[in-house]
């Protein structure tokens, strides 16, 4: 069984406003509006499902928006098992100015309590013991939950020899590194935040990733936007690049990259093959208007044009 578990501890209802031209200080009317179940782990789930993988999505939700969230997951045929609490799941708004293509986001924070995480942990362990191949923990944490909460999830997976991919940022990522997950995926800015300095060259980025690998993280993938991505392991460095494509929407591209990579690993593909698939999924997402989604026909074309260079990790 190759089922992948995605963990979204701070999910959201994602509201997307498409506006012909945003005028600050004035009334702006939307041309179209979309409401979807959101959160980084949900984007990962959607991509894995589109690739044909087996997926189970879990996390913590609550209130009216939490019920709406679950209904959206069911509509998208994403198998799920969430802990329901008394706290209201957040709403996040993305306003797209169609005249410029720029996206303005309004992201709510959401409350939670440590006891909610403790209850979730019981559910999580039960799920792990029922045939999970790989876990992807994505996104931020609810306010009120300890910053090292992912560490506990990583350790529980490790006890059962289940690989854990961590995609978060800031203090939560710094803490998560201590639990030595199978892979982390910072973008360049997030990596610079860890080291509190600017990384100006590819060599500097690779060297920073090497430091994290030496701390016990098996693999560090750094996404570089239009400049591709780098994967650093104990023994090798992979660099992925792709030809210039028309970018429509980069929101969810990092999650799509994780989805492709996780699917590849769960299906027994090599690190290099999984890395290539991940970068191809992230690129495909950026070519679409939707968030955290891929088109298989476009993916096939993109995949054929991804170039992977490999060098020893000296």
What is the compact description of this entry?
This protein has a single domain, classed as UDP-N-acetylmuramoyl-L-alanine:D-glutamate ligase.
N-to-C order of helices and strands: EEEHEHEEEHEHEHEHHEEEHHHE
User: Describe the biggest sheet?
Assistant: 10 strands, mixed
Helical fraction: 25-40%
Secondary structure tally: strands: 14
User: Tell me, what is the CATH class?
Assistant: Alpha Beta
Which architecture per CATH?
A: 3-Layer(aba) Sandwich
Provide the domain count: 1
The number of helical runs is 10
How does the overall form come out from the CA principal axes?
globular
CATH level 3 topology: UDP-N-acetylmuramoyl-L-alanine:D-glutamate ligase
Question: Uncertain runs with pLDDT below 50, 5 residues or more?
Answer: none
User: What integer value in Å does the Rg equal?
Assistant: 19 Å
The average pLDDT value, as a whole number, equals: 93
The first-to-last residue Cα distance is 36 Å
Molecular structure report:
With 314 residues, the protein is α/β, with parallel strands linked by helices. The protein has one domain: UDP-N-acetylmuramoyl-L-alanine:D-glutamate ligase (3-Layer(aba) Sandwich), CATH 3.40.1190. Helices cover 38% and strands 25% of the residues. The chain is built from ten helices and 14 strands. The chain has helices at residues 40-50, 63-75, 114-128, 149-159, 170-177, 188-195, 202-214, 253-266, 271-286, 296-305; strands at residues 4-8, 12-19, 32-38, 55-62, 80-85, 90-97, 103-107, 134-138, 163-167, 183-184, 219-223, 229-232, 236-241, 307-312. The strands form two sheets. A ten-stranded mixed beta sheet has the order 5-4-1-8-9-10-11-12-13-14, sandwiched between helices. A four-stranded mixed beta sheet has the order 3-2-6-7.
């Amino acid at each position: 069984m190759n089922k992948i578990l995605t963990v979204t501890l701070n999910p959201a209802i994602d509201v997307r406003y498409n506006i012909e031209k945003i005028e600050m200080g004035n009334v702006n009317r939307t041309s179209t509006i979309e409401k979807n179940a959101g959160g980084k782990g949900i984007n990962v789930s959607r991509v894995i499902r589109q690739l044909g993988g087996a997926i189970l999505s879990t996390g913590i939700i609550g209130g009216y928006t939490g019920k709406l969230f679950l209904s959206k997951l069911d509509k998208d045929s994403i198998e799920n098992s969430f802990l329901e609490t008394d706290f209201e799941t957040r709403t996040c708004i993305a306003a797209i100015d169609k005249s410029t293509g720029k996206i303005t986001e309004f992201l709510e924070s959401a409350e939670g309590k440590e006891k909610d995480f403790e209850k979730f942990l019981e559910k999580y362990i039960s799920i792990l013991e029922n045939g999970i191949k790989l876990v992807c923990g994505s996104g931020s944490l609810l306010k009120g939950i300890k910053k090292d909460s992912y560490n506990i999830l990583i350790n529980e997976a490790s006890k059962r020899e289940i690989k854990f991919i961590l995609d978060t940022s800031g203090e939560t990522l710094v803490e998560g590194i201590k639990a030595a997950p199978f892979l982390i995926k910072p973008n360049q800015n997030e990596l610079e935040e860890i080291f509190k300095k600017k990384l100006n060259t590819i060599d500097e980025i690779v060297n920073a990733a090497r430091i994290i690998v030496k701390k016990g993280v098996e693999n560090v993938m750094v996404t570089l936007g239009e400049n591709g991505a780098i994967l650093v392991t104990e023994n090798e460095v992979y660099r992925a690049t792709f030809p210039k494509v028309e970018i429509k929407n980069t929101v969810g591209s990092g999650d799509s990259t994780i989805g492709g990579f996780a699917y590849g690993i769960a299906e027994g593909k090599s690190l290099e093959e999984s890395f290539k698939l991940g970068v191809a999924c992230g690129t495909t997402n950026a070519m679409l208007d939707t968030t955290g989604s891929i088109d298989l026909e476009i993916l096939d074309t993109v995949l054929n044009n991804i170039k992977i260079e490999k060098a020893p990790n000296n």
